[in-house]
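Retro notes (design track)

What went well: tokenization of the new backbones is finally stable.
What didn't: we kept losing track of which sequence belonged to which structure.
Fix going forward: every design gets posted as structure first, then sequence, in one message. First example under the new rule, 309 residues:
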């Protein structure tokens, strides 16, 4: 039993004529008769009664008709779902920093060679990106964390680093002159460990659990010997722009991506760099180890070609 046979049967049942059914299905009348006979032989029942002037369904034919109509409708919906409107679409799930630093340039580069491609972007934290990719809701993922997940390939594309932003002159027992000197460097120079540890023990605004920035920030705290229970959490926020506003308002300090500092931004906070070997993290490309259509394969090659650029 196949869809052609079912379509032939439905067409005959609806127009009640073999000759007309052959015209509507672009088949010969012997082919139409063959399809009906094959169905009757496979099911072991008579589906149609042939009269002189028309064709009528038997009770078994009516049962098959109901099922066949639903199956054909389902097939049509599936073909529409995976048809032409999906062939030129690439679905990307991305966390915050790759969404700003990495994805726009990749899309712009790819569209130069594939101008008709449409992109559908979903933004979430790194854990959400992994979930969408794993369940097949995204073709590619970009995160600020490396993952080792069965069936998912994770490749580093480039690196990012964290900086500490603090409310203006929130130096406490840190020398005002040394703090001002460190924070006004463009770009800010690496700050002393004692200064940074003192500031990290003050109220902190953190990213949400599951965020690559949160995971990288926790590594920074560990480097300075600050346990999770000793972190003075002022707020947990899932938006870097909101975090910067809160720091500017004096709510607390935060560890954010250096990429989140806009060149032309009029910052109402101070920025301090971490030591060279602290706060570095990869920005990664993720994709499922499964079939990819030609368009997605081309995008994969484009993204891999951008590695370390």
């Amino acid at each position: 039993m196949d869809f052609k046979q079912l379509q032939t049967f439905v067409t005959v049942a609806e127009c009640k004529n073999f000759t007309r059914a052959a015209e509507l299905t672009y088949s010969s009348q012997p082919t139409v008769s063959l399809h009906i006979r094959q169905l009757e032989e496979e099911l072991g029942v008579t589906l149609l009664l042939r009269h002189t002037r028309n064709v009528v369904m038997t009770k078994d034919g009516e049962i098959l008709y109901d099922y066949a109509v639903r199956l054909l409708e389902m097939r049509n919906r599936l073909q529409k779902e995976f048809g032409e409107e999906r062939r030129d679409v690439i679905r990307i799930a991305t966390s915050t920093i790759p969404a700003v630093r990495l994805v726009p340039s990749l899309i712009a580069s790819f569209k130069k060679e594939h101008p008709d491609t449409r992109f559908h972007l979903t933004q979430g934290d790194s854990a959400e990106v992994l979930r969408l990719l794993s369940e097949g809701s995204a073709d590619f993922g970009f995160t600020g964390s490396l993952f080792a997940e069965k069936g998912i390939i994770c490749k580093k594309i480039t690196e990012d680093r964290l900086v500490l932003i603090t409310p203006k002159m929130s130096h406490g027992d840190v020398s005002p002159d040394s703090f001002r000197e460190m924070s006004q460097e463009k770009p800010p120079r690496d700050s002393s460990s004692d200064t940074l540890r003192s500031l990290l023990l003050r109220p902190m605004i953190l990213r949400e659990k599951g965020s690559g920035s949160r995971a990288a920030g926790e590594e920074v705290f560990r480097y300075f010997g600050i346990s999770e229970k000793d972190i003075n959490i002022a707020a947990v926020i899932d938006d870097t722009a909101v975090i910067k506003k809160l720091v500017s308002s004096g709510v607390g300090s935060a560890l954010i991506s250096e990429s989140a500092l806009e060149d032309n931004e009029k910052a109402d906070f101070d920025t301090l760099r971490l030591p060279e070997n602290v706060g570095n993290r990869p920005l990664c490309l993720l994709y499922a180890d499964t079939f990819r259509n030609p368009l997605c394969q081309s995008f994969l090659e484009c993204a891999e070609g951008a590695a370390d650029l």
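Added context from the reviewer: Residues 159-281 form a domain with the D-Maltodextrin-Binding Protein; domain 2 fold (CATH 3.40.190.10).
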